[in-house]
Amino acid sequence: MKAFISTLLGYDPKSKSMEGGVLGLVKAYYGCVEAQGRGTLHCHMMIWVEGGLNPSDMKERLRGEDGVAFGQRLICFLDDTISTSIPPPYDEGNRSEVRRYKASKKPLTHRGVDLALSPESDDVARQRREDLRLLVACCQHHEHTATCYKYQKEGDSTAECRFELDAENFVPETTVDPETGHLTLRCLDGLINNYNATILEAMRCNMDIKFIGTGEDAKAVIYYVTDYITKSQLKTHVAYAALALGVKKATEAAPSDDSEESIKAKRMLQKCAFSLVANQEMSAQQVATYLLDYEDHYTSDTFANLYWPSFERYLDRQHPSPECRYDSHTSNSAAQGDDVDDTPETLDEEVDDTEEVIVSTNDVGDVVPVSSQVADYVYRGSELENICLWDFVAQTKK
């Protein structure tokens, strides 16, 4: 993945190189690694390209005065970047290389091109074309299976592939509606996953690439990626639903049975459910990844966390509402007949009395105390007096 980011995407964290990669000049990226049911690992990644517009700005640009010219440039870029069909053969009259590669049945494991040949020779161009054809046929061609319809009712004649791949999905060319700014990408083969030829040649594995041109697409992709980040192989509610069903059946079988055997059976069901939740199955690839300290996500940027609830609690104590002040004093001082003191506590007491003492380690491994964000902001000093909380958390590092 690091080679893919640095070589194919051409991402330069120091922004010294302006050449870019196969998708253009990459401004930022974020990807997370997921394990399939069979254990193999793959990455879902979002990539931001320099000069790319957000969906609303792009729609306005397409509907503007230079919308036609801008739309043509955008179409050329997308058609050059995203392919949707098996490429035609380099030479219709010579298919010996194709037959040889097909006979090996391993288009994903061989190099594809004879590296001893000169890069400028016709043989290299021909071998690359035929190699790409086999890769697309092997990696990108979709065949419907039961997985395509697992969320639909059995026997439903109107069921459609959940991956939205169908031979009838044919769009001859990419078009832009000048009135609405809606972009319709071409689809020359409805059973081919979108791919980038250069990435497919280099990575030699299945891929899918999608241009995010609408707000709906952006929301869908963000939800898709974040869902993979947070999901587990077995949902907790599924395990407890299985437990509830097992207990219900055991109770229905012997509703008044409080014998030792019945109690042991119910406890066994509980232990099974707890074990399902606590002991998640992991593939060998996942275990090896963690043991070798490989990343489970890749990002070009770091993000600061704002722990807002602690600031809310601090503000509530500094400026309590009349209702909160009445309730708190009623349960404490007023209930005992004492005079109610509306004077707030000192700032030091407000910060120090409620925040935990936290320790961490620095870059060299020494244990150091770490104060809370509330204390850091409250005691930020006169030089940072005019900076707001949001900018303080985002722009400062302790």
Helix content: 40-55%
Radius of gyration in whole Å, from Cα? 30 Å
End-to-end C-alpha gap: 31 Å
Strand order of the largest sheet: 2-1-5
Order of helices and strands: HEEHHHHEEHHHHHEHHHEEHH
Structural class: mainly alpha
The mean pLDDT is 78
Would you count the extended β strands for me?
Answer: 7
User: What fraction of residues sit in β-strands?
Assistant: 5-15%
Question: Low-confidence runs (pLDDT<50, min 5 residues)?
Answer: 95-105, 325-347
* Biggest sheet character: 3 strands, antiparallel
The total of helices stands at 15
Per the principal axes of the C-alpha atoms, what is the gross shape? extended
If you had to describe this structure to a student in words, what would you say it looks like?
This protein has 398 residues and is mainly alpha-helical. Among the domains are: 45 residues; 57 residues, no CATH class. The strands form 3 sheets. Strands 2-1-5 form a 3-stranded antiparallel sheet, covered by helices on one side. Helix 8 runs antiparallel to helix 9. The longest helix has 19 residues. The two termini are 31 Å apart. About 9% of the residues have low confidence.
